[in-house]
Design brief:
membrane, six-stranded antiparallel beta sheet, transmembrane helix, 24 helices, alpha+beta, 4 domains, Transglutaminase-like, about 15% strand, Papain-like_cys_pep_sf
Length: about 850
Amino acid sequence: MAIGKVHSWKKVIAQIVLLGIPTATLLFYIIWKANSFYNILQNDWVMQGSYFAAGIVAAIIFYSYRFRFLTTSLLLLGIYFLAYKIIGNYAVGEFDAFFASVKFLLFAVLFSAGWLTGYGFSRSRYYTIFWGALLLCTQIIIVSKTTDFKAQTIIGDFAPILAYSFYIIFTAELIRNMNENEKNFGWFLFKRFIGFAVVIIAILLGIFTTFNADFKAIEQEWGNAKANYDDKQGGSESMTKKNKDGSISNKDQTRLTSSLSKGKRLVFVAKLDNFFKDNKTPNPLYFTAYYYTKFDTLTQAFEIDSTMPDNDLFRPDPSKIPIYFAKTDSTVIKNTHATLNRKVVTTEVYKVLLAPDEYIAPSTAFFCQPIPVADEYKEQYKSAYRAKMWVSDLNSAYFIYNPAGNPILEQFQEQRFEALRSVKDFSGADKKLMDYYTFMPSNKDYDSLRALALRITANAKTPIDKMIAIRDYFLSKDEFGQPLFKYSDNPGIPGIPSASKLNYFLFENRKGYCAYFAGATLFMLRAIGIPSRVAAGFLTIDRSSKNPGWYWFYEDQAHAWTQVFFPGFGWIDFDTTVPDVNTQQAPQPDETPPLNMQDAYFVADGIVTSVDTVAKRIKLDVKRVLFHDKDYETDAAKNIELDVSIASISRDTGAVKLSVVKEGMHITAASYAESLKDLKANDDDSINAVLAKVPAPVPIDQIKIIDPESKKQQKEKENAQQEQPTDWIKVLWLSLAVIGGAVLLVLLTPWFIWQYFNAAARNAKDTRSKAFNSHRAVMYYMNQIGYNRTNAGPYEYATNIDKKFNTTFASFSNVYQKLKYSSLPLSTKEVENVQTFYSPFIQGIRKQVPFKTRLSKFMNIYNTIAYFTQSKNK
């Protein structure tokens, strides 16, 4: 008796081609990935993938007949057992037997998986759902083995699996419901697959667009962030970044991560002219690089915001300012809204590793003047600048770092707190500033933080007392007398990637580095209506008693702290990070500072017109000079000659030779010559009068090459042009656009063909070509709107059209047939029929067939295919 069939061969072929082959292809990829992580697979992924493919194809064919799964599965297991015994009996040696057994086991597992999947595709309606979920779980396990945990890796690994899962469920149901007697089954599948492709890409695009930021957050928290920190330290975040040239810059953002990397190298040295009232005790100030006024809740990072109101951050590029010339910005002083207890303080910064274009100074800086480095210090210091700041008398690096027992410091603390207690509220502050600097996200995590802030500050009356209460909370002790909060470069992370690290820090582990303390302080202050922001730069510690006012800054002093705004007093620094003993102690003894720097009597800034390396002469077109600290400028360049026989030449990267100086370079030349010391300028002297007084050639001691701005831009461009990860969101958008364009092109193809046929019919001149082109255009047009000829003869078809639309197609068809098959000439009436038939016929059809119907019919590509494939001999 013949075994009955469950599926026709048409359905079996559809299952193999549309389900089996795509599944086998995907399994080849998964097995290839698995071979990268599991040695037992022996990197034989081609053969292993073939086992699965053989199983799935065999099962689809086998179960197209009425076989029972349980009976046949038991038979298959019996075959496996028999084969295993045969291998054991014929394998030579213990090792060979083991190796053969492992290979057979892999075959059995993979072939069985393929067999089960083939059965599921053939007989089970819900197997595809289980199969898709299983593949996703398998891919999760494989991806978890990789260290390249990046957003593009996550999307790249899971997008194909998701797309396949949607595809296999859709296609299996499509084949299940297919009409096996459908003549146009190919067109049936084509239409549905085009629609499916558009929908699936739109779905994936929506998923990855919506969750792209979450993928990036997971990447930043759990991924391989080794490129962002010192490998020796093993941290995942650093307060500074290392540039390609080896220099150090401050970062424009800082993330809350599981650990902090700290270097020990010297970054810069500074002389700060800020002392207490005894003029002996230094009052250190933190050196500020950026203000972080925005918090990204997704990546949990503090960032700069160029749109912050009343921007009081001065960020010049010292490497682009000629030495001894100054750049100022008085608007930052205005934007501090500070009028009480303010003074101008000066600092000099000598760079060791600090990047040439980096500017850092206590807040609020408004002045930058590059200064030369004396020859004896050039090996240590690459460049230097002088800065001036609008500083509050109440500002200081001392808040938690407050040496007990020093009466001057203790008195200062109480005096400044008493002064700030004059601010009772913020009723007089600008509303825009208050709204911006008191903003905080609104969700349950920040509600908990707000409740903590209200509890801590419940007994404090003024803003400064609330600030002190928060400081004291971080300094408090637990029930065992141990510090409640501890400084740690490795605070750990919550168990869930998206969990709030600030809440984890405040309520659970209570360990963190400066960004945690500053961030927690920021939001507690904002929660109770106190405007605040996070400042980033370098922690200033007074370690030296030999040279008061001189400070050494190492990599591990990169720091973040909180600034609080007080109306009238402006922004004041408050650091709530509990002491880190390692940071307070220098990694090496502070050295002798660069003392006794010379003052320049003459400085010229201009463009080199010629260089004589033998005579040690440079000719310079100058438009600006400094003479005894007075600035002179002119619109018309003046050419002067310089004697550079004893000059030291440098650029921001260090000392260079005279041969480096080329025509067209921008340089600044300074002279300390005693011969210029007694030369004085009159109040009304012009630049020409000054140049006439100085000797020719002018003796020059120091030359600095000013690299053009394009060099910096080129460097930034090179830094930005690092290998970028694949943006899968853009890939999905592009794929959707390509598919959409292809679909649109397919849908418009019938219209393009019609435009060609229509133009040929209208533009034909002679009777024969007019008849041929008109007949072709009419037949195509009627076919497209749903009136194809099928099996009707020419006259029968034309007559039916005339009856339907009241046209004269039959008479024209007779004339056309005569021209096509007869050699007799046409009569005058027949010629007139050919010439006048076409346009009225098309217009008549359009009037009787609604536009919506014509449009929908015209966009059916199947009608076009049917027109070109039907027999033309009837």
